[in-house]
Amino acid sequence: MSAEPLAPATGDSPDDAAGRKPDSPADAESGGSGTGSTSDGSGPGGSVWAGLRPLVLRLHFYAGVLVAPFLLVAAATGLLYAGSFPAEKLVYAHELRVPVGDRELPISEQVAAARKAHPEGEISAVRPSPEDGATTRVLLSGVKGVDPDHTLAVFVDPYTGKARGALEQYGSTGALPLRTWIDEFHRDLHLGQTGRLYSELAASWLWVIALGGVVLWLSRRRKKRTLRAVALPDRTATGRKRTMSFHGAVGLWVALGLLFLSATGLTWSTYAGANVEDLRTALGQTTPTVSATVGGGEHAGHHRGSGSMPGMDMGGTGEAAGHTDVGLDRVLKTAHAQDLDNPVEIVPPAEPGSAYVVSQIQRSWPEKQDSVAIDPATGEVTDVQRFADYPVLAKLTRWGIDLHTGNLFGLVNQIALAALALALIFLIVWGYRMWWQRGRASAFGRPIPRGAWRRVPLYALLPLAAVTAAIGYYLPLLGIPLAAFLAVDIVAGEIARRRGTAPVA
Fold first, then answer.
1. In what order do the strands lie in the sheet with 381-385?
2. How far apart (Å, rounded) are the C-alpha atoms in residues 342 and 305?
3. Coil, helix or strand for 298?
């Protein structure tokens, strides 16, 4: 919910400036926070809400007007990202799908075929075909011309061993070039680390604008206090009231979704995300990882380099430089025996004394995130990590991120994200339209008058300020702009006071 307070307050129209009493019927109809009412807590001496409501109105207005452009970009790019999943399957169908054959070749033979077609770089991981008709991916790192943070995925027909092509891949979800480009556009506008600040700013303010809008909409005075009047737009209204009706009702319906997007978006942001990670560490709720260390002794002499792995390039159990390696086929069989069914990813030993790590990579419900470490010399399991044993916050983080990125419930998840993005776009457009429609004569978009905080009781103002400061500390891209808003507002108010143009508070 953005760009516009859901109801005008005292001083919102020329009538107020001309001396109309703020608790007049016109104000009540429009939902204003006049200073003369009693029972609903909108007057002096009423409830705490009498002073807080104008503050919320002013914050909702300024935050909406100034932050809405960032939210609009985030919503538009998020809409593109939601559609990138089915688009990826269509664009890269040749690489991703093959006719189903009689039987699959051993994984070692598939890897050998990939290396024959692409001998460059080193093997960083292998993703065996997860289902009938799906290709195997052999991931190569250190390939010239490929982003260092990405890998080159070689797609192999598991039935024939034929390499069907190679594409740059990014991330644990295996995003290919189209989805990667859109993902990075949504995350940082292709501006790198600096660009990530835009998305963190949007996520930091989205929950504030959404919650403020919900509170304002639910507290708005109406002639009829019915569920229909609150939850559905008033199609009989005209002008600004009609726009407000759609803005408020739709915002109410999608508020929980917007709060979710804000919270999960912050978990992997630059500054707020680091604070969240520190909190999880302090609480012992970090995501556990399987240990890939085999130990000393004869196993410490294992060496992997230049993408030449025994049992991978040549396809089978063998020896290299006098050190045995059980090979990929044995490793995969051992992982399956540990109940790690597809889809899985096999990561080869990274250095002497380390093990193969086989991890489940399914991000759809139910999650498959178990991992095992396997000794390359003996084929024995050296460590096991089950998703069921993850701490609560680690599980919630995993589910939240996968739901935010459209993986947890597949196509249904992606459609829901697209609907949320569209709703947010409409809310922003309606908000700016209301801002325009509030204009009178040569002016438009008049803000809520300042000075409302003076009507907030001290016993409520001090705790509110403390909580706001604490939230601003942990969410710096909320706290810093909010401090800037306050500073500018105070300076502007002082200038207006000295010129004798400040409104009476």
1. 163-169, 151-156, 136-141, 122-127, 344-347, 356-360, 371-374, 381-385
2. 27
3. helix
Nearest to 198 by CA among 276, 265, 258, 256: 265
List helix spans (H) across 268-390: 271-282, 327-337
Q: Of 360, 312, 347, give the one whose Cα is nearest residue 141.
A: 347
Q: Locate tokens 């005292």: which residue?
A: 10
State the pLDDT confidence band at 38, using cuts at 50, 70 and 90: very low
Closest CA to 456 of 59, 17, 25: 59
**First and final CA of the chain: distance in angstroms?**
27
CA 248 to chain CA mean position, Å: 24
Q: How far apart are CA 395 and CA 386, in angstroms?
A: 11
Pair of tokens at residue 457: 């009781």
E strand or H helix that includes residue 357 = strand 356-360
**How do strand 136-141 and strand 151-156 relate by DSSP bridges?**
antiparallel
Question: Which residues are CB-contacts of 217 (< 8 A; sequence separation ≥ 6)?
Answer: 1, 6, 230, 248, 249, 251, 252
Give pLDDT tens digits for 77-110.
999 999 999 999 999 999 999 999 999 999 999 9
Q: Is 316 exposed, middle or buried (0-12, 13-18, 19+ CB in 10 A)?
A: middle
Maximal CA-CA distance, the chain: 95
Q: What is the pLDDT of residues 370-401, one digit of tens each?
A: 999 999 999 999 999 999 999 999 999 999 99
Q: Which two tokens stand for residue 330?
A: 């044995």
CB atoms within 10 A of CB 23: 18
The vertex-2 CA angle with 427 and 494, nearest 5°, equals: 150
Instruction: Count CB atoms within 10 A of the CB of residue 279.
Output: 12
Instruction: Read off the DSSP letter of residue 224.
Output: S
Q: Using an 8 Å Cβ cutoff, are 140 and 119 in contact?
A: no
Per-residue H/E/C for 239-274:
HHHHHHHHHHHHHHHHHHHHHHHHHHHHHCCCHHHH
Number of other residues whose CB lies within 10 A of the CB of residue 235: 8
Residue where the block lists tokens 């809310």: 427
What single letter denotes the amino acid at residue 471?
Answer: I
154 with 95: CB under 8 angstroms? Answer: no
For residue 33, the one-letter residue type is: S
- Write down the residue that tokens 């396997």 correspond to: 374
Number of other residues whose CB lies within 10 A of the CB of residue 62: 19
Q: Are 434 and 240 a contacting pair, CB within 8 Å?
A: yes
* Contact status, residue 298 vs residue 315, Cβ threshold 8 Å: no
Pick from 118, 184, 182: which is nearest to 151 by CA?
118
- Residue recorded with tokens 């061993």: 161
Backbone angles phi, psi at 120, to 5 degrees: -75, 160
CB atoms within 10 A of CB 9: 26
pTM (2 d.p.): 0.83
